[in-house]
Specification:
Ribosomal_bL32, two-stranded antiparallel sheet, Large ribosomal subunit protein bL32m, mainly alpha, Mitoribosomal_protein_bL32, transit peptide, structural constituent of ribosome
């Protein structure tokens, strides 16, 4: 029987040493990896921008719906006849009642 020659240990081979020496630097670069932002993934030219300028006419048509609407719920007050909003107190009558309540003497309840 022929004797099996013993191989030198793995780290004793000089051509393997260079490969194992690079492993810590590879692992360090993996730990420093980060997710890029959107601007790094896509160039700014691909982000959403209008193709053409919006004309003054189209801009005015879009904003026409934002105008003030006329009130449809204005009625006359049954007490004084002044105009007021429906289902609201009349400001004229309320101020009159408020003045009356403030000028009236405060009644103290009798203690038993």
């Amino acid at each position: 029987m022929a004797a099996i020659p013993l191989l030198p240990p793995l780290f004793a081979r000089p051509w393997r040493l260079r490969a194992f020496a690079a492993v810590p630097t590879l692992l360090a670069s993996v730990r420093e990896w980060r997710i890029p932002s959107l601007l790094e993934l896509f160039p700014p030219i691909t982000l959403a921008v209008p193709k053409k300028k919006v004309s003054h006419s189209r801009k005015a048509m879009r904003q026409a719906n934002k105008g003030l609407k006329d009130k449809q719920n204005i009625v006359s007050c049954p007490g004084c006849g002044e105009p007021k909003l429906a289902h609201q107190l009349c400001p004229n009558c309320y101020s009159f009642l408020k003045r009356m309540w403030k000028s009236a003497p405060i009644e103290q309840p009798e203690k038993m």
